[in-house]
Amino acid sequence: MSRINLAMYRIRKAKDILIEAKDNFDQKHYGLSINRSYYAMFTSARAILALKEMDSSKHSGVIALFNQHIVKEGFFSKEISKFLPKAKDIREDADYAD
Q: Pick from 25, 65, 77, 80: most CB atoms within 10 A?
């Protein structure tokens, strides 16, 4: 699969996940909505990284690559770089905290 096809596939997947997030929110399943919202963001980041033929098997690795090769190079603002790690923390709290 080419990097463009992979990126497009991941963006379509992220859109589907975002629909799941909205559906869960509308049904007042807020924890699930948080989970799906984070994964939509995460999958979008992986789509962008695919264009540079980069990926990581770890969430922290994807975040680091995104910040280093996308944000630092000026494709997104530094403000954007704060969203994904914060969303990861919120998702982990929603999934695992008491």
A: 65
Predicted local confidence at residue 77, as pLDDT: 92
Residue type, 42: F
Number of domains, the chain: 1
Domain that holds residue 84: 3-96
In sequence order, the 6+-apart residues with CB closer than 8 A to the CB of 68 are: none
Confidence of residue 45 (pLDDT cuts 50, 70, 90): very high
Specify whether the CB–CB gap between 47 and 17 falls below 8 A: no
pTM of the model: 0.94
Using N-to-C axis directions, what is the helix angle for 83-96 and 59-66, rounded to 10°? 160
